[in-house]
Design a protein that fits this description.
Layout (H helix, E strand, L loop, with lengths): L8 H15 L7 E2 L16 E2 L2 H14 L15 H5 L5 H19 L4 E9 L4 H8 L1 H19 E3 L5 E3 L7 E11 L11 E10 L1
Antiparallel strand pairs: 1-2, 3-6, 4-5, 6-7
């Protein structure tokens, strides 16, 4: 009597993973996807990865714009001053012009392969969009940690006795700005006039 032929459960799982892996248009990871998430695909290790060049460029641009100048070791001018600009007491027109200039300088130096098309921002305070962000606990906490760290840096002062003092934070004056940057990738889309969009949220205290 011959034994029944077939695959074990483990073998079936391996075959299934290989088939799904082969169906992906690009099976080679280009970089780690941010914010960090646990990897789940066959060729991923600890973190999820970007497989399309457009996704990697979008990720790189987001990290460039959301990094505060001075945060990256050995690259003091990497990043932007967006958190500082939007936390200032200037008029919205001045904030808009300063932010646009800051983004342009950062991208022309660290991401010259992209071409900026448009930039606009709006306050989400007392709007439906802010409610959605506040409901996303993880996202809001991440925004608040970044804002709190920035506020600590800018509020440290020396008193008359030579010791460091810190102003008390006003927890009731949080404002969330939604920033959208539109751009093109000329080298990637020579035949198609395709525009990409990146939307970020910055939480500030005034």
């Amino acid at each position: 009597m011959s034994l029944p032929q077939g695959n074990t459960v483990r073998e079936e799982r391996v075959i299934s993973e290989r088939m799904s892996f082969q169906e992906e248009p690009n099976s080679f990871p280009l970089g780690i996807k941010t914010p960090l998430e646990k990897g789940s695909k066959l060729n991923e290790t600890l973190f999820k990865m970007n497989y399309e060049i457009e996704d990697q460029i979008n990720d790189n641009l987001k990290n460039l714009l959301m990094t505060k100048k001075g945060e990256k070791i050995c690259f003091n001018d990497y990043g932007t001053r967006l958190h500082e600009i939007y936390a200032s007491d200037k008029s919205m027109d001045q904030i808009y012009n300063d932010a646009m200039s800051d983004i342009s300088i950062a991208t022309s130096k660290y991401m010259p392969s992209i071409s900026l098309v448009n930039y606009y921002s709006k306050i989400l305070q007392n709007e439906e969009e802010m409610k959605k962000i506040l409901e996303d606990t993880t996202k809001f906490k991440r925004l608040k940690r970044g804002s709190h760290f920035h506020n600590i840096q800018k509020s440290l002062t020396l008193n008359n006795k030579g010791s460091i003092s810190k102003k008390k934070d006003d927890e009731n004056s949080n404002i969330i700005y939604q920033i959208t940057v539109e751009y093109k990738i000329p080298m990637l889309n020579q035949k198609q006039d395709k525009t990409y969009s990146l939307t970020m949220n910055i939480l500030t205290s005034k």
